[in-house]
Amino acid sequence: MSQPMSLIHVDELPRSEEILQLKNDYIEGEPLKLFLQVEEHLTETLWWPSKNNDENLILFVIPGNPGVVDYYAEFLNTVHDELGKKIDIIGVSMLGHTHGPHNLSLKSLYSLQVQIDHKIQCIDKLKSRFTSQGDGKQPKFIICGHSIGAYIGSQVLKARPNHGIEMVYALYPTLQHIVKTPNGVLMNFLFNERPRSLAASFVSNLRHFIPPAFFKFIVSNLTWQKESMVNITISALLHGHVVENSLYMAGNEMETVCELDEELYREHLDKFIFYFSKYDKWAPLEHYEDMKRRFPEGKVLLCEDDTPHAFVLDHGEVIGKKVAGWIVNKNNII
C-alpha cells in the first residue's frame, strides 16, 4: 500500500482535471493528502478520488479518538478497491489531533462540540463541491463514523437532515454513557487537567531527550503496532500538544455522551447501521444488547470476527470489505 505523502493546501477539492496540476506523479485512484480550508480551520484530509462516480456518492469518514485519519488508510484503500474506485472517499482528522503545519497552535484545545461543528462545516463544503455544475445534481453521502466519530456522524445528520445523507455507518459506536464503560471507568482519571498536562509534558520530554530510534523502539514495544502504524503514531500523534488535545476531547466525551438520543435514532433508524464487537471495552456488548432491545427492527449488528475497537490498526482490510459490501447492497455500485 502506498502512503499518501503529498501535503497540499487547497481551498476546495480540485476537479479531476486539476489533480495533476497539484501532484504531477498522481496515480489514478490513489489517495491524496490535502490540507483543506474549512471555514477558519486548515483540515488534514485524505481523499480517494473516484474514477467514474455516476452516482455522485461520497463516503465521508469521521475517525475516533485519537482522530488521526492516516490510521484509516488501509481500511479505506480496501473500501475503494472493493468498489472499483467508483466512489469518492473523504476522511478528515480531528482538529488538533495530528502534528504538522496545519496545527501550529500549541495552546488551542478543541472540545467535542467544536469537532461536531467542524464536521458539519466539512459536509457543507463537500455538498457545495460535489453538486454538479451542469445539471445541479446533488451528491449523496454515506457517513462512516468510528467510535466517537459515530456519535459525531449522528449529530451531523441531526443538523443536516436534508443534505442527502443516505446512511450512517456507526462502527464500534460510543453513543451513550461512555464514562460507565469498562475503559471509561479505567481511564477517566487521565482526562482531568493535571494528568492530561503531565501526559503531554512526558511525551514532549521523551521526544526531546531520547534519540529517535530509541523512541521508536519504545513506542513499538509498548503498543505492539505494526511498523506502518508505529510510524503514524510517532509522526502524527505523539507530540505534547496533540496528546493533550486528544485527552481533552476524551474528557468532553465522558461529560457529554450520556443518555442515548433515542428520538434521533428512531427518527432516522432506516439510515443507520450500528456495528458492535463482543469484547469492545468502549462500546461494550451491553450497548449492543440495549440497542437491539430499543430498536428490534433496526440494523444492529454484532461482528462475527470479534474484531477489536481499534480495528484500523490490524483489521482494516476485514472491515473495509464489510463496509464495501454494505455500499454495494445499498447502491448497486458494481
Automatic annotation (TrEMBL):
Please name the Gene3D superfamilies in this protein's record: alpha/beta hydrolase
Which UniProt keywords are present, listed alphabetically?
A: Hydrolase, Lipid droplet
Please give one Pfam family short name.
LIDHydrolase
| A GO CC term attached to the entry | lipid droplet
Q: Where in the cell is it found?
A: Lipid droplet
Q: Name one GO biological process term.
A: lipid storage
Instruction: Please list the GO terms describing molecular function.
Output: lipase activity
The similarity comment for this entry is: Belongs to the AB hydrolase superfamily. LDAH family.
What's the protein called, per UniProt? Alpha/Beta hydrolase protein
Tell me what organism the protein belongs to.
Answer: Glomus cerebriforme
Q: Which lineage ranks, top first, belong to the organism behind this chain?
A: Eukaryota, Fungi, Fungi incertae sedis, Mucoromycota, Glomeromycotina
